[in-house]
Amino acid sequence: MSKYIRERFPALTLAELHKLAEEHRDNETVMRLLWEIRALHNVGYHAWRLETEQYFVYPDNPLGAAVLALRRVLQEERWLSEMIVKIRGKRDPNDGW
């Protein structure tokens, strides 16, 4: 996704997704889309876990190039830090509480 599009349409927070689910509980299409988003969030979270296990990679081989590309993509996803905090059961120190 281009950076311009992502900046114009930032990812919804988990709270915003939850609110949408509550407001559109009877809309099958919205609920299906929300479940797809959840599935993609799970894929993103597990990709992050895989990427963190590969702390140091050589960019001159296929695995290294793939991990570095994955790292760049994941760094642009704002929802990921929120997801990590939720799964680990810890509060984000930057959440203002």
Features:
single chain; 97 residues; mainly alpha; 5 helices; 68% helix; 0% strand; elongated; Phage protein
Report the mean per-residue pLDDT as an integer.
Answer: 86
Query: What is the number of E strands?
Result: 0
- Helix content estimate: 55-70%
From the spread of the alpha carbons, the general shape counts as elongated
Overall tally of domains: 1
What would a concise description of this structure say?
The protein is an all-alpha fold and 97 residues long. The protein contains 5 helices and no strands. This is Phage protein.
Write the topology of this structure.
Layout (H helix, E strand, L loop, with lengths): L2 H6 L5 H10 L4 H26 L8 H14 L3 H10 L9
Helix pairs in contact: 3-4, 3-5
Protein name: Phage protein
Explain how this protein is built:
The chain has 97 residues and is mostly helical. It has one domain. Helix content is 68%, strand content 0%. It contains 5 helices and no strands. It has helices at 3-8, 14-23, 28-53, 62-75, 79-88. The longest helix has 26 residues, at 28-53. It is elongated and about 50 Å long. The mean pLDDT is 86.
